[in-house]
Design a protein that fits this description.
Layout lengths: L3 E2 L1 H12 L4 H16 L2 H5 L2 E4 L10 H10 L3 E8 L4 E6 L6 E3 L5 E3 L12 E3 L4 E3 L4 E2 L5 H6 L6 E4 L5 E2 L1 E2 L10 E3 L4 E3 H10 L1
Parallel strand pairs: 1-12, 2-3, 2-7, 7-10, 8-11, 10-13
Antiparallel strand pairs: 3-4, 5-6, 8-9, 13-14
Length: about 200
């Protein structure tokens, strides 16, 4: 039986662990994660990748992921969040100079287009913590779960190993991800979920 941890405890634990990771470790581990991502069929065959820009201390550096994907000829789609509407809209990445910092300090597109996600081939989703069953812990607003309910493409979380837990409490609105890529492994959460149900 996998040990169950509640969301608040998972967040607290990860935030404590993030304080102990250096910028050199982030860079080195991010490169290992990128290498593992590049080995997946979902990445290789994706034309449009929906991805966020990392902003928090101790996170996987998705700026490097974006630059790597651009080198493969991928189209990068970024989210722009509208607080008053509690929704994301999309924008195609056209260069780092075309981004601005919002009032919360996050880099985001100056403009947004629409909410259509039908042409997205791969989602790379932010997570504070993640379980090997695909249960994602975000910042707590549930905004990304609402976005992901509209998405049919594979959903990945790129995380450091210290962000991964066996089992995290789940709410009805939570959307599970399909794969987790860390500096050490690639986790197919659907396989783990089937094993959990059958055990």
């Amino acid at each position: 039986m996998k040990t169950l941890i509640d969301k608040s405890e998972a967040r607290k634990t990860v935030l404590q662990r993030k304080r102990n990771i250096s910028s050199e470790e982030i860079s080195s581990k991010t490169q290992k994660i990128i290498k593992r991502l590049a080995a997946t069929d979902d990445f290789v065959y994706a034309n449009k990748i929906h991805i966020y820009i990392s902003n928090k201390t101790g996170e996987v550096d998705t700026r490097k992921v974006i630059d790597f994907a651009l080198g493969w000829g991928k189209q990068i789609i970024l989210p722009k969040f509208f607080k008053e509407l509690r929704t994301f809209r999309r924008f195609q990445f056209t260069g780092w100079d075309d981004l601005v910092k919002n009032q919360d300090g996050y880099l985001e597109p100056k403009l947004s287009v629409d909410e259509d996600l039908s042409d997205i081939d791969l989602f790379i989703v932010p997570a504070v913590a993640i379980s090997s069953l695909g249960q994602r812990v975000g910042q707590g607003g549930g905004h990304y779960d609402r976005l992901l309910r509209k998405a049919y493409a594979p959903k990945y979380v790129l995380a450091f190993e210290f962000q991964v837990f066996d089992n995290i409490e789940t709410d009805l609105h939570d959307v599970r991800v399909d794969k987790i890529i860390t500096e050490r492994r690639t986790v197919n959460t659907r396989e783990n979920l089937n094993f959990s149900w059958n055990s």
